[in-house]
Amino acid sequence: MKARGIVGVALLLTLTACGGSTKGGASTPTTPPATSATAPSTSTPSSTAATTPTAPAVPAAKDGQNYKACVDGICEVLVRTKAVINLNGDKFTATVAKGTLKLTDAKGYISLSRTGSSSSRRGNGSVGGAAGGIAAVQWNDGDGPVHIATLTYAEGDTVIVRFRKG
Fold first, then answer.
1. H or E stretch covering 6
2. How many CA atoms lie within 13 A of 13 on its CB side?
3. Dihedral (Cα; 100, 112, 82, 61), 10-degree rounding
4. CA end-to-end distance (rounded Å), the chain
5. In angstroms, rounded to a whole number, what is the distance separating the alpha carbons of residues 95 and 70?
6. For residue 128, which phi and psi values (nearest 5 degrees)?
7. Contact (CB, 8 A) for 136 and 150
8. Are 110 and 121 contacting, i.e. CB atoms less than 8 angstroms apart?
């Protein structure tokens, strides 16, 4: 009889634990036991990774970074930080910082930026403004050809400059 009593108490405890409470005669549903087969999730996982803003795309220059295209004095090139450009035999070092292009040779420099242009040249040449783009300048060195440089894009250490003859 003792064995039946222990089994009965164990059964009663098991039913009470699994059956939930009975308040007012209604039983509270219980959570079904976990099964080995899990139903597929229909929720979309949320991304916690921060998205980084992308920099605006740099437009394409007609001649890319092919500075040899400038040998005849006519080209449109992209310059990042530093390049050597030969315009009709005049060799210039082009440097870019903070959206400003500076062309330097043995006779001085020419600078172009969003805020305008400046120059310092030696010899009997001349420098003057030109129309177009963000900023433009034209110059010649005495009896040499007239060069026209037009800045068409300027951001940070990257510019696009178009050279032509005047």
1. helix 2-19
2. 6
3. 100
4. 118
5. 16
6. -150, 170
7. yes
8. yes
Structure token pair of residue 23: 């308040």
pTM exceeds 0.85, yes or no: no
Per-residue pLDDT tens digits of the chain, which is 166 residues long: 555 555 444 444 444 445 544 444 454 555 555 555 555 555 555 555 566 667 678 999 999 999 999 999 999 999 999 999 999 888 999 999 999 999 999 888 999 988 877 777 866 556 766 666 788 888 887 777 889 999 999 999 999 999 999 8
Which residue reads 């300048």 in tokens? 137
CB 70 within 8 A of CB 163: yes
Instruction: Please report where in the chains the tokens 């605006």 appear, as a residue.
Output: 56
Task: Tell me the CB-side half-sphere exposure of residue 44, using CA atoms within 13 A.
Answer: 3
**How would you class 58 by CB atoms within 10 Å of its CB: exposed for 0-12, middle for 13-18, buried for 19 or more?**
middle
Cα 11 from Cα 80, distance rounded (Å): 82
